[in-house]
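INFO batch 0412 | record 1 of 1 | parsing
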Amino acid sequence: MKFMKSTELGLSAMYRILKKSGAERVSDESADELRRVIEDIAGQIAKNAIDMSNHAGRKTVKAEDIKLASKQFFKN
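INFO prediction complete | emitting tokens
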């Protein structure tokens, strides 16, 4: 028996992302795995952004905190 895990992102959005990226067909498992990976990455970015805002003496997380925290996931 599979237990349902609470997620923040909708599965239908994962299907759309994969389709818009060129996938002809999308398995349920691939959409679910994409959701899991994106949520893991988003959690890491959020934690880093919170650390940055705290370090700057702010309680508010700003867009620039997110941008800086996400740089490690993108090649420029």
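INFO post-check: The chain is about 60% helix and 0% strand.
INFO record closed
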